[in-house]
Amino acid sequence: MSTASAARREIPEATVARLPVYLRALRALSARGVDVVSSEELAEAAGVRSAGLRKDLSHLGSYGVRGVGYDVARLSDEISRELGLHHDWSVAIIGMGNLGHALAAYSGFATRGFQVRWLIDEDPAIVGTEIAGLKVITFADLEKHEPDSIIAVIATPPEAAQTAADQAIALGVRSILNFAPGVLAVPPGVEVRKVDLATELQILAFHEQRGKYEQRGELEPGGKYEQEVVR
Fold this sequence. Notes:
Radius of gyration: 22 Å
Strand order of the largest sheet: 5-6-4-3-7-8-9
Structural class: alpha/beta
CATH architecture of the largest domain: 3-Layer(aba) Sandwich
Number of domains: 3
Strand content: 15-25%
């Protein structure tokens, strides 16, 4: 993502977070041969409200054509540019456990403009092995490549995540996607996005439980669910 561009246009973070969703919907429409789409159709494809979508896109200076809609190819290009996807981004995956293996083999990175170029681990038993066509190297090896414009993906055990982040930042990394549980301490100017699968499952469990209470009519004032929450 081009954070400088986002700051220049003062695009709200919530809007930035939705831009990839709009881009995915637009690409799906393009694949179906759709050239022009209304805000209502695009909003439905993206799973958002049309008024919110129009407000989001207005931050990009894109308002569509009244009575016609948005040009799919042009809007895709505008969002791609705003997200920084016209730039070549290299990805370094740190931690070659089960999750690291899976991420290294994930083809979705390349289709969205990101090239996994480096796999990093410090375990001598893993360094030098080949995973998904790439040889696993150490941080010291990575430094020799003089990497530029790297996004680091941390897939280490939680106890190793901070050290991995520190080593990546020391090499000049300013963007980190963290899959490890816990919070990373990073200096100003370093952007961290966290992917916590366990938290997402807990949120789903909450909604699943709430749905069951609703089916039994126990969400009324004074119902069993409310009483349990109060306790």
